[in-house]
Amino acid sequence: MKSKGICYLVGAGPGDLGLVTLRAKECIEAADVLVYDALSSPELLRWTKQGCEKIYVGKRAKDHSVPQEKINEIIVEHTRNGKIVTRLKGGDPMIFARGGEEAAELADAGVAFEIVPGISSAIAGPAYAGIPVTHRDHNTQLTIFTGHEDPSKGYSSIDYAQLAKAPGTKVFLMGVARLREITSSFIEHGADAGTPIALVRWATTASQWTIEGTLETIADIAERAGFSSPAVAIIGNVVKERAKINWFETRPLFGKKIVVTRTREQSGDLSKRLQNLGADVIELPTIRIELPEDREGFAEGVTHAHEYDWLVFTSPNGVEKFFDAFFATYEDARSLGNPRIAAIGPGTAAKIREYRIGVDLLPERFVAEGLIDAFEKLNVENQTILWIKAAESRDIIYDGLLKLGAIIDECIAYRTVAETEDLTGAQARIIEEGADMITFTSSSTAEHFFALGIEWPEDCVAASIGPITSATLREHDQPPGVEAAQHDIPGLVTAIENYFRK
User: Fold this and answer.
1) Where do the domains of the chain lie, and which CATH numbers do they carry?
2) Of 16, 32, 37, 92, which is the active-site residue?
3) Does 37 participate in catalysis according to the annotation?
4) What is the rounded distance in angstroms from the CA atom of residue 270 to the CA atom of residue 138?
5) Which of 74, 153, 243, 406 would be 401's cystine partner, CB 3.0–4.6 Å?
6) Among candidates 33, 77, 73, 39, which has minimal Cα distance to 55?
7) Is position 70 annotated as part of the catalytic site?
8) Would residue 437 show up in a list of annotated catalytic residues for this protein?
9) Rounded to two decimals, what is the model's pTM?
């Protein structure tokens, strides 16, 4: 017998991934079938489990790749077949998103469903533009209406006479195409032509764009600017507050499109730091981490790690793979013995400390040469050292420690291979939209980026985490415009921020 299916009608929020609810994330992760539209953040697709069927139904104004009737059929059919179906809808599913119709279809079909509210752009869009929809000095009433009605009705159910007279703030969605008609209707029915209005496009994302005017002028302003949907409009004196509290669009990297090429697992820290500064981050992982080809040799190195005087870690990946294998072999952390621990930089040291293990040696320069300089100040002659490394690592550490008289063994913990999956369409975005900067955190990310054959975007700058990565970029005739003075993620972010501030 097939398991009982259920369909989750989920609000995907207005665009900022941080505004997606915890319940929405749970539903995406549980989905056997994900049905999503064009307004859902593509990053949400990464939360799906392996084997999840993804169905794009591309709903935008005047561009419905799949008719609503067909969408209804899709979610009902898969739910009837015992699947967990998650229907992702931009914003909130019950605010001008036809979620009520889809819920009715599921109810008529006799299948289980759940409605998961989301944050609507009607509220989030104004907030991210620095406009409070309610304010003690301006209003105590909020009216939300749609600027895009069902064309098959043959008439408008919007009462502009009542809207024009209604006190407080008015917010409308999906009305850019009819902007002149809507504003003219307000004025015709008695609204003050000088009433402030703002339009916020791609609200809550790094592509957000806000324009201001009055009911009389905004249509001309929008046309001259080439302003288009998707956008939310706010009418009322609350728009005046934007001059004081416009917080989102004033961040130092706002409007800058920056590509992150780290692995999917590692991209989060760099991406988040850049996003917090306002950047439009495109995650394009060019490499992924896999186990070494000689897994038996790796396991043997981990098993005998307690026999060494030193363990040397040169990347967070190496730390993670080592301890995953160690705790798969030993139940007690004390089985590691008492080797001293060396880390190439603060990122690697932080990963080691996650396992409640201290770091004895951290170089001043976070590169292989810096680590050798640090070891030169110690007496490691005849001491045994296990170097936990990537298969592609340079020989600098091995050769340097050997010259210092150490007895060194290599423990290959992982290898980097080309990332072939592009779930979010990042490559297409770079090709179509370009980028202001592409970041590289290792030579591997650089090598594999150029192997993709993507034409370097016009006026785009390369940002490098350090001299070794910079050398690789130069080998590909793309010298970095930015190089981190401190060779770690915080150092790279600081260098990027300084570059754009100039």
Assistant:
1) 6-119 (3.40.1010.10), 123-245 (3.30.950.10), 257-286+419-501 (3.40.50.10090), 290-418 (3.40.50.10090)
2) 37
3) yes
4) 40
5) 406
6) 33
7) no
8) no
9) 0.75
